[in-house]
Amino acid sequence: MGQHVGARVSTSVRIDPRVILASQVLQLNHAELLQAVETELAENPALERIEDSETPVTLDEILKTVAPAELKPSSDNRELQRSLPRDGEQEFDWLDFTPDSDTLWDHLRAQLLPQLPDHEKDLGNYLIASVNDRGYLTVSLEEVALDCNVTLESSAKAIELLKQCEPAGVGANDLRECLLLQLRGHSEADHRLARTILRQDWDLLVQRDVRALRRKYKTSDEAIRKVFEIVTGLNPFPGEGFKAHVCIGADRSVGAQADLVLARDETGWRIEVPGPTACSLRIDDAYASRYRLIAKGRVPKEERGHIQEFVDRANRFIDAISQRHKTMLQIGRFFVEQQSGFVSTGDYKFLNPLTRVQLAAHLGLHESSVSRATNGKFVQIATGEILSFDVFFKPALRIQKMIEEILSTENPSCPFSDESIAQILHEKGVKVARRTVNKYRDKTKLLSSRHRRSA
Questions:
Q1: Model pTM greater than 0.85?
Q2: What is the pLDDT of residues 168-190, one digit of tens each?
């Protein structure tokens, strides 16, 4: 036995707690944010809410009292009058009171979180928030480990648990992995061959090169065609089976509150982020004064740690609320500038194709930040409709709505064929094939022209 004394220098990466807290607060919807603020106020004695009487009076409140006529739209602005919400009575539909179906992220939380220990719940929530609406994971293994301050092994284990969740294929990084996840667990010979071809000969599979695959795997044309049938029968977007609740009509009873409000008046667009803001919270005066005395060495040592801990925690929370508000405003400005036709009228023909990646690049944000800011949240547009953010990121939705509009105006005795619908869409600037029209029509459960005529 022997003893050895030496020094070792090592480096490690530690994520700033402010970054982690900002990410967690950003993914909260309106109701969750209210709950988080109440929880923090109850647990942190250094944080307090600014009473309403202390809140500065806004310009709109002043005008409502001093010059209410200034806020009313003029009668000659017909477009603005048409786009504003109607004040008339609306007929209630009992379907509006049915409970909301779970979103993809609710479905994943119910499966993944119970499998994780308590100290990894934040890791699980981070992964779920990083899954986009198509079911793909938008962050790498290294990003997960750094953002959540956990080891690569813990991150890999949690990601593997996510990939075992339903719907099959969720949590994949790309299309090939998504398809492989859906084939996992099938022991039939055709499925085993499909998995092998997916792993080793992706390019030949995409090219549908039957001859090359038949020669390489020494099998029949029928077996290769069976592989094609299996692969094409898989779902490339496992998350699209979950639709976020969309409620129309601001006066109706709704299942969700707007996290972003885009409204119009005579002065232009007004972008609001409902809920608590950094201006509604502050550090308690007693704690703030004691905190300033720490630098002067006039606070006892046993009191110093308590004050620093809770004041720093309160500052981090207020900063996270401020960052969330800023990010939501950025997204709102982008929609007003780039999707003004749709957010003004609610007409889907004005909805421009957009992805979260494009939005993130335009705003200079990471894609995961945009995903957290929009997943499971709702936006209220100028017509008063409350829509899921997912509406802006589903290119197929615009085409589906345009097809529905075309069919709603057709002659019942002479309905449009899929080819005719494709031609009408082409005239409107949307180029799609006949079979694409057929796919979107089937997805929205619209009958074919023959059945619509007989109906």
A1: no
A2: 889 998 888 999 999 888 888 88
In angstroms, the CA 37 to CA 44 distance is 10
268-272 and 281-283 beta bridge pairing: unpaired
Pair of tokens at residue 447: 């009958």
Give the Cα separation of 296 and 5 in Å (integer): 40
Tokens 């004695």 -> residue: 45
Whether residue 261 contacts residue 272, with contact meaning beta carbons closer than 8 Å, is answered with yes
Is there a contact between 314 and 44 (Cβ–Cβ < 8 Å)? yes
| Strand boundaries in 151-280, DSSP class E | 260-265, 268-272
Residues ≥6 apart with Cβ < 8 Å to 271:
260, 261, 262, 329, 332, 333, 336
Distance CA 80, CA 263 (A): 11
Q: How far apart are CA 323 and CA 327, in angstroms?
A: 6
Q: Which residues of 252-288 are buried (b: 16+ CB within 10 A; e: fewer)?
A: eebebebbbbbbbeeeebebebebbebebbbbbeebe
Among all chains, which residue has been given the structure tokens 């593997």?
160
Q: What 3-state class would DSSP assign to 438?
A: helix
- The 10s digit of each residue's pLDDT in 216-261 is 888 888 888 888 888 888 888 888 776 543 333 333 334 568 899 9
- Pair 112, 163: CB distance under 8 Å: no
Helix (H) or strand (E) holding 189: helix 189-200
Say if residue 301 is exposed, middle or buried (CB neighbours under 10 Å; 0-12, 13-18, 19+). Answer: exposed
CA distance 123 to 127: 6
In the chain, % helix, strand, coil (3-state, to 5) comes to 60, 5, 35
